[in-house]
Write a structure and sequence with these properties.
alpha+beta; four-stranded antiparallel beta sheet; 4 domains; TIM Barrel
Length: about 475
């Protein structure tokens, strides 16, 4: 006997299905007008207005001969046939029967030239029947697309879709077998020019109903295209909600800096394929450590943990940073970390600092705010807080310039000893450090950075205002 809860679940399911059927019928008596969104010139379809293709089996459908199609494609490439034949004739098309046999769903077809073909569509007829049962019907008809969607019998007719896929190149840095794009195996290179990419993105974003809410760059390996970063940046500029890449991850695994550039350009998702867990499960990709490569790509793309060694005005410093949020996914860069810095090269005279940094980019403009709480080492156990701000302009991917300001105040110094009786009072002095001025930084390599600041300083425990020049060098690990 089944668990009694299962009978209750079944009863609730049947009741809900019946209630929905009644509600749907009542709703048709005097329905409200369908809404017409701004991305469409026609109203959306109600569920009962949607049409469906023939479903179930056995049934007849349209299919392609797997041998006629490559033959005709090659004839077009060789100049023996005009490409217009694809628009005006149903080349390679044949009828097929979808049938159930031996617990499988098969597509059975015969080509007058190449003979008989059978393909397995499903090994689970019940699940396939369920998929057809829940199919909601065709979406709104495409419109205002006559100049763009003109592909013969393959022309898109329904729906607004969700993802536009653009194959930037058929080049790849792998030789997978099988490869659904036959990358590196067709004997020629097909790579979109910058004008091609812009035209596709511009045309697709104008379609109504708008099909492409996001764009996926694919290939081949899209990161090998010389226009990959430019394409990501332009797609975001013209209005695509999301930009993603279908990638093997090799270029992302090789370079954290490339990951950073892709994120800054507007890449939101990296679509990685895993054939299983571990290198053995992915060995047929002909790269011995493919699983490790993709894990490294994920780590670099996340870019959450970093460490660096820095030498500047106060001596060496080492920092470990963990990124909590990033701008592309959350609208804000937010990271935390721990830093140890010394006075000169004396580790017994230093400070342990706990950092929280927030930043946001507005195009080439960058705004960064840091908050720091520090604990001195060396016996005095002083405590201080520090606020630091930067506003600047990214001139290139490697160089940025702006204004940097830092304010540091003591919050826990030991109280100074009282002066002897009769000693003249000491003039009041500041209990904070203030430094402000123009600054510039240069990423010499993806891991080495130089930064210089020239400005004004008001040192603590003095009443002085003086010029200051500071040079920092840092190395990322």
């Amino acid at each position: 006997m089944h668990n009694p809860v299962k009978y209750v679940e079944k009863a609730v399911t049947v009741a809900a299905t019946g209630a929905w059927a009644v509600f749907e019928r009542l709703n048709r008596i005097k329905p409200n007008p369908s809404p017409k969104p701004k991305w469409s010139d026609k109203p959306l379809l109600k569920s009962y207005e949607k049409s469906k293709p023939p479903l179930g089996w056995p049934r007849t459908t349209d299919s392609l001969c797997p041998r006629c199609v490559p033959e005709i494609r090659q004839q077009i490439l060789d100049g023996e046939l005009p490409h217009e034949i694809l628009l005006n004739e149903k080349v390679g098309e044949i009828k097929a029967q979808i049938v159930e046999r031996d617990g499988k769903i098969l597509m059975v077809k015969d080509c007058p030239k190449h003979g008989h073909f059978e393909d397995v569509m499903s090994i689970d007829p019940e699940f396939s029947r369920h998929l057809e049962d829940v199919f909601p019907g065709r979406d709104i008809l495409a419109h205002n697309d006559e100049k763009l969607h003109h592909h013969g019998s393959s022309t898109v007719k329904y729906g607004r879709g969700s993802v536009l896929t653009i194959d930037l190149t058929n080049r790849c840095n792998m030789m997978c077998d099988p490869c659904f794009m036959d990358a590196n195996q067709v004997g020629f290179v097909h790579e979109l020019t910058w004008d091609d990419i812009k035209t596709m993105l511009d045309n697709a974003i104008t379609i109504k109903p708008r099909r492409q809410m996001s764009v996926q760059f694919s290939g081949g390996e899209p990161t090998l295209s010389p226009y990959f970063l430019d394409a990501v940046r332009y797609a975001r500029k013209v209005g695509y909600n999301s930009v993603q890449a279908a990638t093997n991850g090799i270029e992302f695994a090789k370079s954290p800096e490339f990951c950073k550039q892709a994120a800054e350009a507007g890449l939101r998702y990296a679509y990685l394929q895993f054939d299983g867990i571990g290198n053995a499960a992915n060995a047929h990709r002909k790269v011995g450590n493919m699983f490790d490569v993709k894990v490294r790509a994920i780590q670099n793309l996340h870019a959450d943990v970093g460490a660096y060694f820095q030498s500047g005005a106060q001596g060496p410093a080492a920092r470990i940073r963990y990124q909590l949020l990033n701008q592309r996914s959350h609208g804000l860069d937010l990271s935390t970390g721990v830093r140890f810095k010394t006075v000169g090269f004396h580790p017994d005279e230093g400070e342990v600092e706990f950092l929280l940094a927030a930043g946001r980019r507005f195009g080439a403009l960058e705004v960064v705010v840091n908050g720091v709480f520090g604990l001195e080492t060396g016996g005095e156990n002083g405590k201080d807080v520090e606020a630091k701000g930067f506003v600047g302009w990214r001139l290139t991917q490697a160089i940025r310039a702006g204004v940097d300001a830092r304010l540091q105040a003591e919050v826990g110094d030991e109280e100074a000893a009282l002066p002897p009786v009769g000693t003249p009072p000491t003039p009041a002095v500041r209990d904070y450090d203030l430094t402000v001025g123009p600054t510039a930084s240069w990423m010499v390599t993806p891991t080495i950075q130089l930064q210089a600041l020239v400005g004004l300083a008001q040192p603590k425990k003095t009443n002085l205002t003086t010029g200051v020049g500071v040079v920092y060098a840092s190395i990322d690990f």
